[in-house]
């Protein structure tokens, strides 16, 4: 079986608040380019593979808000909404439970507020996970870094470190087994869950454009990225 024949899935986790964004509503619902961030994110995956099942994990309190937004913006892209848990671990676990329990495939877990993942990154991540079981998108550091201990700091080699992004892709049976483990405070992302399960994590080159919208300054970048894409007629149009 080739990577193109293996079923692809995506779990989009959108449980953030608007605290660091200094917004009155959750950041995944804030508008960029005239519509909520989350709609842009879902559309990226649908444009990559229109047959891919999309599972959107939301807090219980935000489900009605999302349904209302879908009506307001005539957003009809197929996706399944699942209620998240009290932690990211529980939310991803709930998303996994919504997928076909008997099938193999590759599943991507992605932040709902990363709306600029592109086809090249998605293709590389799904292919790597198909071949080696895991594929975590990451980028090199651009700035110098220092390790702080107590009252002193020391320069360290930035080439030995990576900034982790999403999507994080895994063979579906592997991720299911990994998420059968008891939850641990050490689980900061899906890669840490799978690594604790004893599986090696493989990295895929990401992009500095694949930002996670967290602060008000990120919204300015997002609008600039959308304008840049709009001004590139050669770019493949996203499907609505």
From TrEMBL:
<feature type="site" description="Positions MEP for the nucleophilic attack">
    <location>
        <position position="212"/>
    </location>
</feature>
<dbReference type="InterPro" id="IPR029044">
    <property type="entry name" value="Nucleotide-diphossugar_trans"/>
</dbReference>
<feature type="site" description="Positions MEP for the nucleophilic attack">
    <location>
        <position position="158"/>
    </location>
</feature>
<protein>
    <recommendedName>
        <fullName>2-C-methyl-D-erythritol 4-phosphate cytidylyltransferase</fullName>
        <ecNumber>2.7.7.60</ecNumber>
    </recommendedName>
</protein>
<dbReference type="GO" id="GO:0050518">
    <property type="term" value="F:2-C-methyl-D-erythritol 4-phosphate cytidylyltransferase activity"/>
</dbReference>
<dbReference type="GO" id="GO:0019288">
    <property type="term" value="P:isopentenyl diphosphate biosynthetic process, methylerythritol 4-phosphate pathway"/>
</dbReference>
<dbReference type="InterPro" id="IPR050088">
    <property type="entry name" value="IspD/TarI_cytidylyltransf_bact"/>
</dbReference>
<feature type="site" description="Transition state stabilizer">
    <location>
        <position position="27"/>
    </location>
</feature>
<keyword id="KW-0548">Nucleotidyltransferase</keyword>
<comment type="function">
    <text>Catalyzes the formation of 4-diphosphocytidyl-2-C-methyl-D-erythritol from CTP and 2-C-methyl-D-erythritol 4-phosphate (MEP).</text>
</comment>
<dbReference type="InterPro" id="IPR001228">
    <property type="entry name" value="IspD"/>
</dbReference>
<keyword id="KW-0808">Transferase</keyword>
<feature type="site" description="Transition state stabilizer">
    <location>
        <position position="20"/>
    </location>
</feature>
<comment type="similarity">
    <text>Belongs to the IspD/TarI cytidylyltransferase family. IspD subfamily.</text>
</comment>
<keyword id="KW-0414">Isoprene biosynthesis</keyword>
<dbReference type="InterPro" id="IPR034683">
    <property type="entry name" value="IspD/TarI"/>
</dbReference>
<comment type="pathway">
    <text>Isoprenoid biosynthesis; isopentenyl diphosphate biosynthesis via DXP pathway; isopentenyl diphosphate from 1-deoxy-D-xylulose 5-phosphate: step 2/6.</text>
</comment>
<dbReference type="Pfam" id="PF01128">
    <property type="entry name" value="IspD"/>
</dbReference>
